[in-house]
Q: What sequence folds into this?
């Protein structure tokens, strides 16, 4: 693969070293499946192409990276990561093409912005399995779409925010105004309104297509958050990738205000100086999706299609790591979760 790509190769670990309860059984099953599918002892070589920001965004990309890390440890795959040098369709296609030329299979693209590139490159490499997170806008026999019920997780985040708010005003900041991010907004606003009738929800976006810079503009997110806080909003949910750190900084600087993270459990990943301001996070289990896709490949699943991750499959949820902060509203939020699970409540996908 091209030298200018930032890569991280996993070291091969002997199966005997993984003799921990449960983990060993998973490795054995994967190995047996691999042999049964004609892979023999050849190590599966995975390629993971990051979205804007790459590993270290404490959100979307880090969740995907966690899935690859787990696959390296438990399934003994050889994993390589690729970070974009620039934001362009040509660069995305070149990144995927470089992974394919390097013999990576499967190749997992993180984010809907890879849609056109995956469609193009997958056609060039029909014997390679591709997976794309957050997009099902097209179909191909060798492409798997990994999509999520973000509206369900966001519904829970909205309920928690509304119940925790003292002012009765909560806010949503989206990275880019598009249908995917509007699922987050819709679920959040509906969950807040149901949990606390009369709550006021403010919503704003950092950028609008064709400008996708909203996922990497923490300064702009911070400014929007400061404006919301000045208007009386005291709980802000930010779904904007790496931009979320800016909003969190603004919230942490305002006494009595709370932040709601996204994708990863941001109470666990935030800097010590701001982490106590994280009430909860809408957890989107991109890590599970990446791991399970690699596991499926090892077991012989090469077919394309759509795999959806929702509350019932532990694909989305809300974090409770900040136990002291979430405790006063947790029982009520859990009750909302049960209503989503039994179908008595449906989270909307459009604002």
A:
């Amino acid at each position: 693969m091209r030298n200018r790509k930032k890569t991280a190769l996993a070291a091969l670990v002997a199966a005997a070293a993984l003799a921990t309860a449960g983990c060993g059984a998973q490795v054995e099953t994967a190995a047996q499946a691999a042999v049964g599918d004609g892979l023999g002892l050849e190590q599966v070589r995975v390629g993971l192409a990051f979205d804007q920001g790459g590993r270290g965004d404490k959100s979307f990309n880090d969740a995907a990276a966690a899935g690859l890390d787990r696959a390296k440890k438990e399934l003994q795959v050889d994993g390589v990561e690729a970070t974009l040098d620039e934001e362009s369709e040509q660069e995305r296609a070149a990144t995927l093409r470089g992974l394919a030329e390097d013999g990576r299979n499967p190749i997992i693209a993180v984010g809907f912005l890879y849609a056109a590139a995956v469609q193009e490159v997958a056609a060039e490499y029909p014997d390679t399995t591709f997976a794309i997170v957050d997009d099902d806008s097209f179909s191909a026999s060798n492409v798997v779409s990994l999509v999520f019920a973000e509206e369900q997780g966001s519904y829970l985040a909205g309920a928690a925010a509304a119940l925790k708010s003292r002012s009765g005003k909560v806010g949503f900041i989206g990275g880019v105004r598009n249908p995917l991010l509007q699922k987050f907004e819709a679920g959040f606003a509906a969950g807040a309104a149901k949990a606390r009738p009369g709550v006021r929800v403010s919503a704003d976006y950092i950028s609008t297509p064709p400008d996708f810079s909203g996922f990497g503009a923490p300064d702009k997110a911070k400014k929007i958050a400061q404006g919301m806080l000045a208007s009386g909003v005291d709980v802000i949910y930010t779904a904007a990738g790496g931009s979320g750190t800016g909003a969190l900084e603004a919230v942490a600087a305002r006494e009595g205000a709370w932040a709601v993270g996204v994708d990863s459990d941001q109470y666990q990943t935030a800097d010590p100086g701001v982490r106590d301001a994280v009430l909860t996070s809408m957890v989107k289990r991109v890590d599970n999706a990446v791991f399970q896709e690699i596991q499926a490949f090892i077991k012989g699943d090469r077919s394309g299609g759509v795999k959806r991750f929702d509350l019932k499959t532990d694909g989305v949820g809300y974090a409770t790591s900040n136990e002291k902060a979430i405790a006063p509203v947790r029982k009520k939020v859990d009750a909302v979760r049960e209503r989503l699970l039994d179908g008595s409540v449906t989270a909307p996908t459009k604002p």
About this structure: The chain has two domains: 15-148+286-313, 150-283+320-342. The longest strand covers residues 169-176. Residues 1-41 have pLDDT under 50 and may be disordered. The radius of gyration is 20 Å.
